[in-house]
From TrEMBL:
Protein source organism: Salipiger thiooxidans
A Pfam family hit: Bac_globin
Lineage: Bacteria, Pseudomonadati, Pseudomonadota, Alphaproteobacteria, Rhodobacterales
Family matches, as Gene3D superfamilies: Globins
Alphabetical keyword list: Heme, Iron, Metal-binding, Transport
Protein name: Hemoglobin
C-alpha cells in the first residue's frame, strides 16, 4: 500500500476547471460517493446510525457545499464538521481508509484525470486532519504516527 502523503504534483483548481470541474460535477461526485458509502458494510452503519433516511437530502447538500467551497472557493459551506466526527467513538483508521478508497474510486470513475487528482489530494488532507484531531481529542500519542495507507476498492 502507498502512504496517502506520497503524491505527485497536486493539480490546481484552474486546471480542474479547464477540464470541466463545476458545481454540477461536485454534486455528481457527492451523490455517487454517498450512494456507495451507504451500501458499504464498514462505514455505511456509521452513517445510518447518525443520519435518518429523510435527512439525507439535507446532508448531501451540506457535503456538496463543503466540496464546492474546498475546490471551487464558493464559500457556500459554513458548517463545523469536526465536532460531529469527534463524537463518533468507533471512528478509526479502517474507516478513514475505506472512506478514501470509495472516494478515489468515485472521482476516478466520474472525473477527468486532473480533476480526480485534485479531489483525491484534498480528500487525503481532510482525512488526515480529521484523523489527527480525533486522535488528539482521545488523548492518543501522535509522535511518529504513520500516515494512512491506501486501501483498494472494492
Amino acid at each position: 500500500m502507498i502512504p496517502a502523503r506520497k503524491r505527485r504534483h497536486e493539480p490546481t483548481t484552474d486546471e480542474a476547471i479547464a477540464e470541466g470541474l463545476d458545481e454540477a460535477m461536485v454534486r455528481r461526485v457527492v451523490h455517487r460517493f454517498y450512494d456507495l458509502v451507504r451500501a458499504d458494510p464498514l462505514i455505511g452503519p456509521v452513517f445510518h446510525a447518525r443520519i435518518a433516511d429523510d435527512h439525507w437530502p439535507e446532508h448531501l447538500e451540506k457535503i456538496t457545499a463543503f466540496w464546492s467551497s474546498a475546490l471551487l472557493g464558493t464559500r457556500s459551506y459554513t458548517g463545523k464538521p469536526m465536532p460531529k466526527h469527534l463524537a463518533i467513538e468507533e471512528l478509526g483508521d479502517a474507516h478513514f481508509r475505506r472512506w478514501l478508497a470509495i472516494f478515489r474510486h468515485t472521482v476516478t470513475d466520474l472525473c477527468p484525470e486532473r480533476t480526480a487528482a485534485l479531489f483525491i489530494a484534498r480528500s487525503e488532507r481532510v482525512a488526515e486532519a480529521f484523523r489527527m484531531n480525533i486522535a488528539m481529542h482521545r488523548g492518543d500519542i501522535l509522535t511518529f504516527r504513520p500516515p494512512l495507507t491506501r486501501e483498494d476498492y472494492p
